[in-house]
Amino acid sequence: MNKDRRKRIQNIIDRLTDLETEIEKIQDEEQEAYDNLPESLQECEKGERMSDAIDSLDHAFCSVGDTISYLDEAIQ
Length: 76
Fold this sequence. Notes:
This protein has three helices and no strands. The chain is an all-alpha fold. The chain starts with a helix and ends with a helix.
């Protein structure tokens, strides 16, 4: 792989890393909001939706991390 393509991939990795950080922040905020709900609300529909969102954000975070790893391998 030539230097230009490596640099372009590195730029993508940098942007993905920023997105990964933002996803993690949002997930942490949603988790904190969920944890601060009374237990009765955690078990209702709103709590379930929040829990599902937290799980989805976790999957997104992991997927971005996997993508970064694949791209990093490509430029090695």
